[in-house]
Amino acid sequence: MNRKICVVSGSRAEFGLLRWLMDEIKSDHDLSLQVIVTGMHLSPEFGSTYKEIEEAGFLIDERVDMLLSSDSNSAVTKSIGLGIIGFADIFEKLKPDLLVVLGDRFEIFSATSAAMVAGLPIAHIHGGETTEGAYDEAIRHSITKMSHLHFVATEEYRKRVIQLGEHPDRVFNFGGLGVDAIKKIKLLNKKDLELALNMHFLDKSLLVTFHPVTLEDEEYSFSQMEELLLALKNFKDTSIIFTLPNADTGGKKIADLVNKFVELNPNCKLYKSLGQLKYLSCLKQVDGVIGNSSSGLLEAPSFKVGTINIGDRQKGRIMSNSVINCHPTKDAISKAINKLYDPSFKESLTEVINPYGDGGASEKIVEVLRNHSLMGIKKKIFHNVPFDNS
């Protein structure tokens, strides 16, 4: 048996989670790895991060160029359509036995939509989660219903996927893939990180990753970013590292705002893409993470680093005690930053446990990809969960 496993990646963060799984697939004698890149990976604006995939030793089999220059709602919708067309042709060419996708991005929605119609079995990673402030929520659950094997990060998420009608025998809780990366990669020490980033850390340091809140209009996310920057303006004694927002509706306006802020504040730096090594090394070295990115919830707790989670983009996700939730206002964010440096909060971080596991997910997922029967897998029977009438 030589089962062809096709992995799709559309963003730097997604590849950071998939990398070690891809490595396991590549090394397995019973599996053949196929790699398709799309989305932000192919955009110079976001650092052409497909190069990081190649530098990690992976052969890119095909590319689906689907992002338009605009990030309006209409442009994102058209990008989804372009993606479906592109994936349709590539799946016909590669003829994989199983498609592996992760998360909830619109690029992945295009891939799974094309795969479903093409009759390809789909394995979905990190389903069952909730993010009430973004349309990723609906995309994630839609991908779950189009998929046939499910790899979730917690037992609560496993129950939710089953609640969506998926059979328990096909839903596996192996923990989050982000923890795998932390366990397997040799991170940079502070001195080497400073050289890699071409910056000098001040006594205090923060990592900022803020993405559009896609269920609201552009001005809503823009105003949240303005409030965040007003709060950060008062922390001149702190090294502040920014990463670019995703290619979602309103992302360009947020990026322009951050660019202007960084130009006026010498204690700040902005990077198109840090890559997995530098990003995780930053998580290890900084005092805290600020924004609304899932990395502050999924990976930061493993470093016992505090996270300031702004607004409701991640509302509904399981969070450790290292997460400080705050409203998207200058005063609330400033108060949260002060709490981040409070001695009692810093002391509490020593007891933090990451709810997304302690590693080993990649190996367990590959075992299922290798051994699970695909015979008749495409015809799913809706698994009914008894109603609680109490």
CATH architecture of the largest domain, by name, is 3-Layer(aba) Sandwich
Globally, the shape reads globular
Separation of termini? 50 Å
Helix proportion range: 40-55%
Question: How many individual helices?
Answer: 15
CATH topology of the largest domain: Rossmann fold
**Strand order within the widest beta sheet:** 3-2-1-4-5-6-7
Listing every helix as H and every strand as E from the N terminus to the C terminus, the arrangement reads EHEHEHEHEHEHEHHEHEHEHEHEEHHH
Could you characterize the architecture of this molecule?
- The protein has 390 residues and is α/β, with parallel strands linked by helices.
- The chain folds into 2 domains: 3-174 and 360-371, Rossmann fold (3-Layer(aba) Sandwich), CATH 3.40.50; 188-351, Rossmann fold.
- The chain is 42% helix and 16% strand.
- A 7-stranded parallel beta sheet has the order 3-2-1-4-5-6-7, sandwiched between helices.
- The mean pLDDT is 92.
Question: How would you summarize this macromolecular structure in one to three sentences?
Answer:
It is built from 15 helices and 13 strands. It has 390 residues and is an alpha/beta fold.
Name the descriptors.
390 residues; 13 strands; seven-stranded parallel β-sheet; globular; Rossmann fold; 15 helices; single chain; alpha/beta
Question: What's the layout of helices and strands?
Answer:
Elements: E1 3-9, H1 12-27, E2 31-38, H2 50-55, E3 62-64, H3 73-94, E4 98-102, H4 106-118, E5 122-125, H5 136-146, E6 149-152, H6 155-163, E7 171-173, H7 177-184, H8 190-197, E8 204-209, H9 218-232, E9 238-243, H10 251-264, E10 268-271, H11 275-285, E11 288-291, H12 295-298, E12 306-310, E13 323-326, H13 330-340, H14 343-348, H15 361-371
Parallel strand pairs: 1-2, 1-4, 2-3, 4-5, 5-6, 6-7, 8-9, 8-11, 9-10, 11-12, 12-13
Helix pairs in contact: 1-7, 1-15, 3-4, 4-5, 8-11, 9-10, 9-13
